[in-house]
Design a protein that fits this description.
By secondary structure, the chain is of the alpha+beta class. The chain contains four helices and four strands, in the order ββαββααα. Strands 1-2-4-3 form a four-stranded antiparallel β-sheet. β3 and β4 form a beta hairpin. The mean pLDDT is 85.
Length: 160
């Protein structure tokens, strides 16, 4: 796609540059998004500041004329441009998607914390079981020593 700017008019009142141009392409007519990206590269600005108004193709030729606006900043764009239904719908979808991603991250984080808590509880239970086993072996050893001396386990506990 070859982009050629025919006229560039500064509109300081609205904070934008109005661009008229032509383009030659191969295959299907470029979409608004493709043309916006090309114009943003041409003007060395962010694609969100570029608005494409018209793309008029010439019959049976691989050429088109276009009209677009390149805004100086986002605030001047929001003041001058009207939000259409499809733009509002896209913004709503993007907001919902971002909210779903945020919820998914929160759920993932909660699941991870629950897993850590479960592992900590399991480790504590294993530690308690190991200490209990040590005490049992210690009592078994003491009772075995007591039997060797001729004392019963109850007499041994009385001494302590």
């Amino acid at each position: 796609m070859e982009l050629k700017i025919i006229e560039k008019k500064e509109n300081t009142l609205l904070g934008r540059t109005e661009v008229l141009g032509s383009l030659s392409f191969e295959g299907a007519t470029p979409s608004n998004l493709q043309l916006v990206e090309s114009l943003a590269k041409e003007f060395k600005t962010d694609a969100s500041r570029v608005v494409m108004k018209h793309i008029n193709t010439k019959f049976s030729l691989q050429k088109a004329d276009f009209t677009g606006f390149v805004y100086d900043d986002a605030s001047s764009k929001s003041k001058a441009e009207r939000l259409t239904k499809h733009i509002k719908k896209k913004m709503e979808e993007a907001r919902k998607k971002a909210e779903e991603e945020r919820k998914a991250k929160e759920e993932e984080k909660a699941a991870e914390e629950a897993k850590k808590a479960e592992e900590a509880a399991k480790a504590a239970a294993e530690k308690a079981a190991a200490e209990e086993k040590k005490e049992e072996t210690h009592h078994a050893e003491e009772s075995a020593e007591g039997e060797k001396k001729g004392e019963t386990p109850s007499e041994e506990e009385d001494k302590e």
